[in-house]
Specification:
The complex is a heterodimer of chains A (about 150) and B (about 270). In chain A, about 35% of the residues lie in helices and about 15% in strands. Chain A has about 150 residues and is an alpha+beta fold. The chains are: A alpha+beta (about 150), B alpha+beta (about 270).
């Protein structure tokens, strides 16, 4: 089946099977920031936005994207780079494999929550697992990133 | 691995119902659990274009469309204002924001999963399900039913004045609950729902202490626990679950009486 959707601001077409996952379709479209991690809807590596809302692309059928808007890290280069600098500044990355999913969810949180508390940040990002950092560096980077305009 | 041959975004509920009469068909909600099954289906039925992703509120009830996400329950102002943030509390530990944006109320309720926080929380209130063919029936009755090929359209939660509170215990923040307890009160009755026993949630009732008497919370919790069965799995033993339920039910009763007044008909 053929579907049409908006990917990172551009109207695109894709020829998919009924059971093709959004994750696989996006990688086939060259969006390699979308990582395959746990495949049990737990790790958050495959986070993308569907109609501006963060979802797990490993758990969404590609067919559901038809006539909708999908955003990946490739479509948020400038913001991703800005937040990525804060992550690097805090030494909050080691292997870096979880970064694209984390960045997508942090940018979604920034749009959704006004001045989130630490507890709210932790709760919002509970679905983004990192096996390297222990999260403290990430939390420092997120706080610094969210406070950057106040500085 | 989940496999399917055909994907249909239905335009009417009748179309969905007709397609779903074949055992080789499946209605998908968020697909969170379905995708983890080793399963082949001929037809995937998607209800996402039927505008069933809204929560409607009037003076009598909330009508929650089957395609509402768990995140919508968590954030819905009216639901959480009326039910004392119970829906926020019962959803916020479920995996992560992205998961809750995908998982649907219909999927959680129709699945009648033993671990379901949603089923437990809904059950302590005056809740009904609206089935396309089966009409409207109480959630408790629906939960006991065998799986059939009807379509769950909405979940209806009546505004009957019950005030509730909800708590779970988990081995880690976003894991399945080891035990899930919801307690609501109205008039002379405590409504006690316990899920993750590990079987699906069940609601029992206990009479409240007469006005003017000091409530024996331990006795009331024991009465509730005595009406339920608890079993073991890899997360906890039945005995441990029973003990936890006893403690949490007592705490929730005290919490509600503290917040709303002993035998206060909220």
């Amino acid at each position: 089946m053929e579907i049409q959707f908006t990917l990172n601001g551009k109207l695109v077409w894709a020829d998919i099977q009924a059971d093709t996952l959004l994750l696989d379709m996006l990688r086939a479209k060259g969006c390699y920031s979308v990582k395959r991690g746990c495949e049990t809807s737990n790790c958050g590596l495959c986070t993308v936005w569907l109609n501006q809302v963060p979802v797990l692309s490993c758990s969404v059928l590609a067919a559901r994207a038809e006539q909708h808007v999908v955003t990946t890290l490739e479509g948020l280069q400038a913001e991703a780079e800005a937040f990525g600098a804060f992550l690097a500044g805090q030494g909050a990355e080691q292997c870096g494999f979880c970064n694209p999913g984390l960045i997508m969810n942090v940018l979604a949180m920034e749009r959704e929550l006004k001045k989130p508390s630490e507890e709210e940040i932790k709760e919002y990002l509970a679905g983004n697992l990192c096996r390297c950092t222990g999260y403290m560096g990430q939390l420092r980077a997120i706080r610094a990133y969210l406070n950057r305009k106040a500085l | 691995m989940f496999r399917a041959r055909e994907y249909v975004k239905v335009e009417t509920l009748n179309e969905a119902y007709e397609l779903n009469q074949k055992r080789s068909s499946v209605v998908v909600g968020g697909m969170m659990w379905l995708k983890m099954q080793n399963n082949y289906k001929v037809t995937v039925i998607d209800l996402s274009e039927l505008k069933l992703d809204t929560v409607e509120e009037d003076e009598q009830e909330f009508r929650i469309g089957c395609m509402c996400s768990l995140r919508m329950l968590e954030q819905h102002e009216g639901l959480n204002r009326y039910f004392n943030s119970v829906f926020r509390e019962c959803t916020r530990h479920i995996v992560g924001t992205q998961f809750r944006n995908g998982a649907t109320v219909g999927g959680s309720v129709f699945g009648r999963y033993g671990f379901s926080d949603i089923l437990t929380a809904l059950m302590m209130f005056d809740t009904y399900v609206e089935l396309y063919q089966g009409g409207i029936l109480p959630l408790g009755e629906f939960a006991e039913r065998k799986y059939d090929r009807d379509i769950l359209v909405r979940v209806i939660v009546k505004k009957d004045g019950r005030q509730g509170a909800y708590i779970t215990q988990r081995q880690s923040q976003t894991d399945f609950p080891v035990i899930a307890c919801g307690v609501a009160c109205k008039g002379d009755t405590w409504y006690v729902a316990v899920g993750a026993r590990p079987h699906k949630a069940k609601c029992v009732t206990v009479l409240r202490t007469a006005a003017g008497e000091q409530p024996d919370y331990a006795g009331l919790a024991a009465q509730a626990v005595g009406q339920l069965d608890f079993h073991s799995n890899m997360r906890a033993s039945g005995e441990y679950r029973k003990h936890l339920a006893d403690v949490y039910i007592r705490r929730l009763m005290i919490q509600l009486d503290t917040e709303y007044g002993v035998k206060g008909d909220a």
